[in-house]
Amino acid sequence: MSHTLPIDSLKDTFFSLLESQHLVVEAETGSGKSIRLPVWAAEKGRVLVIEPRRVACTSLAEYVAELSGEKLGHGVGYSIRFDNHFEENSRIVFVTPGVALRWLSEDQLTSFDTVIIDEFHERRWDTDLLLALLKKLNKHRLVATSATMDGLRLADYLGAHRLQAEGRNFNVEVVHVASDSRNMPDIRGIENKVRQVIADNYQQHEDILIFLPGRKEIAQCQSQLKQLFDEQITLGLIDVIPLHASVTDNERRRALTESDKQRIILATNVAETSLTIPGVTLIVDTGLERRTHQRNGRTVLGLHAISRASAEQRKGRAGRVSEGSCIRLYGKAAPLELLTPPELHREELVEPMLAAACCGYQFEELEFIDALPSQTVEQAKEKLKQMAAIDGNGQVTEHGKRLYPLPIDTLFAHLITVMPDKACREAMVDLSAALSTPQKIWQLPSGEEKREQLAKWQPVACDVMTLIKLLREPTPEFLNVDINVLKEARQLADQIREALELPKLEVATSVKREPWLQAVMKAMPELVFVRRERRRQALGNGYCEVSIGRDSRFADDAEAAIVFDQFSLPGKGVKQNLTLATCMSPISFEQMLSLEMGEDQIGDSQVNEEGCQVEVQRVYAGRVIQTRWQQPEGEAGRQALVTMIMEGAVLEGLAEKITADVHQWNLYLALGRYQTDVCTRADEPVDATVWVAEQLDALGVESAEDLELFTIDDFEFDGIPTWEREDFDQQFPYQVVLTDLTMKIEYHIARKLVVAVHASGNRKQDPKRWELPCWQGWKVQYRKASRTIDVR
């Protein structure tokens, strides 16, 4: 390590302070902090270095080992999912946060003296949680490094000393390519935009780094650039290289090592920090990233515009070795967020809470650098209780301990463990592995011939069975499959199978689709969605709505589905998102009904030769999934009987009689006629429907058969005293009947206004004042349809 790096100026201070206190080291990427600090700290004991990304983890371990003149895996090693290169006495071990959390849950990292959390400014949930746990544990020297985060606030949180080092930064010219200064980053036609920018600028630059949101866009741009530079690539003048979490070792080394070729590197956020890519003088920034966020209590991955802090990080990659340029494919005044929100603020907290519990701590007793949203904390607690992963006191259960080590989403881990038999468990393992890879394993063929071949290979139009078949069987030639992603999914499936003592993938147990899906529906009913009757592309579960993904094989005649995976895209509005169902399995209404999903609602009623019948609709998420006719029974039946009485379908004449009695009673009260000493009913208005329901309850009527035992005379309303009623009705009639004209009467007491409303009759002339009751002192009007006149 003879060459000097900007971080070297802090060496003496770092040494003197590390013995006695925690440290926060602020330094730009390229300053050398990720390779120097572990080596310095190792002089005072064993060091665990936590790197947020797998590519950085393996690359830094290789580089530090090389600089130390050692073979990788001895003095310096690493551990990531599927890959371990270290020994028990390795003095420096680079790990991803997931590995660090599992080790912490096993032995509280007792074999390490110093823990370095690199690139803390990325604010991943696992690094935030690790720092909170280690702070609480208080058994290690802690070093947190950050490029852009507020180091003073982090130092205050840890009670740490703050060190700052300058990076090697040259001037970077920024150019915005947008039709309007406020244009936000846009995914549409991104590969064509990138191709044009590179074609216009590659000759003026050395190596070029292009930031893209994901592997799909990297593959699209890679294809475009290979067409553009076909001749130069053949001649060995240009190298187009992808850089993301799943690249091969060869691609990673080509991206991170200087070359005599001009390199065009297509990268995700993995190149934003941690890794120094030498020779880059041009950055092309699409302004986009894939980031998790909360949607209806669940974490989903969606496309987002980056923050201003990320934009500055990306720009700075071009100023490491000389002056450079940064071309941004969005407007100069685009309203970007200032900082990317911490993952703990934008994701559900089920996994972090379970991780904390497995490490022996309740989430609420940990102190985080930013206070957590209380609602999200409570939602996570309820979900983990429902899964039986934690008990009422927040302590981890044996079931929770089984869930936690599985390297997949907690929801999938829970589904695996609650499956009723080995075949269902294996199917759930393989599906979980397929859905836990960062990119899609396969894409739906576009040609008719290939789609027919797919239908023969997998007859059921089901994304789930297709994925499981892809993991378990040889890959068919007609399908567009990403071999690297499929390999990763198979590795993960075998890892989980081994942990759960299940057969290996090549001897997987055959599963019966319907019983398996029935078990999933029973365990997680919120995954069940029904199709909208009119907007056929949309499905709902009563809490949220999804649209059918373009690559889903969901059939046109399928009406319901289990949605295992979702993906969100930014909509037209600032806060609108379009959520796509990207992995669906069709199910039938009959399967839903067998699990008693939905709620009964009473519809129409009728009387036929079988007696009283009511229509009962089973409704799930606003969709009727079953209609049946039955005799009224129970509470719902009693409500149906009330409806039938009030509609005149049974006990003919009762509804009209009771409606008139109640109307007159309420008018009697409103006119101030109530007398405490003569009225037997309380001085309160009455609702006719409620009164009928109360009478049925008092009479013990529960079915239509019970109702047949009663007549109208059994329903007597004790309102206006009988000796007053006739006179009251003459003075304030409920209705007035003339030749060929019947009118309902409305009384507007505050205005001393009577309105006679046409009810029936063929009379063409309006009523005359002398034809109507006296109503002395009241103004009288007549209303027919929308026409109202004064009666004089």
Helices and strands in order:
Blueprint: H1 11-18, E1 23-27, H2 33-41, E2 47-50, H3 54-67, E3 76-80, E4 83-85, E5 92-95, H4 97-107, E6 114-117, H5 125-137, E7 141-146, H6 151-158, E8 161-165, E9 172-176, H7 190-201, E10 207-211, H8 215-228, H9 230-234, E11 238-243, H10 249-256, E12 262-267, E13 280-285, E14 288-295, E15 298-305, H11 308-316, E16 324-328, H12 343-346, H13 350-358, H14 374-386, H15 398-403, H16 410-418, H17 422-435, E17 442-443, H18 448-457, H19 463-472, E18 480-481, H20 483-499, H21 513-523, E19 528-531, E20 538-540, E21 545-548, E22 560-570, E23 577-587, H22 589-594, E24 599-608, E25 611-620, E26 623-630, H23 634-646, H24 654-670, H25 688-699, H26 704-707, H27 722-731, E27 735-738, E28 741-748, E29 753-760, E30 779-784, E31 787-790
Parallel strand pairs: 1-7, 1-8, 2-5, 2-6, 3-5, 6-7, 9-16, 10-12, 10-13, 11-12, 13-16, 15-22, 21-23, 29-30
Antiparallel strand pairs: 3-4, 14-15, 17-18, 19-20, 19-22, 20-21, 22-23, 24-25, 25-26, 27-28, 28-29, 30-31
Helix pairs in contact: 7-8, 13-14, 16-17, 17-19, 17-20, 23-25
Structure overview:
This protein is α/β, with parallel strands linked by helices and 792 residues long. The chain folds into six domains: 6-165, Rossmann fold; 172-340, 3-Layer(aba) Sandwich (Rossmann fold); 348-405; 418-596, no CATH class; 602-712, no CATH class; 733-790, no CATH class. It is built from 27 helices and 31 strands. The chain has an eight-stranded mixed sheet with strand order 4-3-5-2-6-7-1-8, with helices on both faces. The protein has a six-stranded parallel sheet with strand order 9-16-13-10-12-11, with helices on both faces. β3 (76-80) and β4 form a beta hairpin. α16 (410-418) packs antiparallel against α17 (422-435) and α17 (422-435) crosses α19 (463-472). The longest helix is centred in the middle third of the chain and has 17 residues, at 483-499. It starts with 10 loop residues before the first helix and ends with a strand. The mean pLDDT is 88.
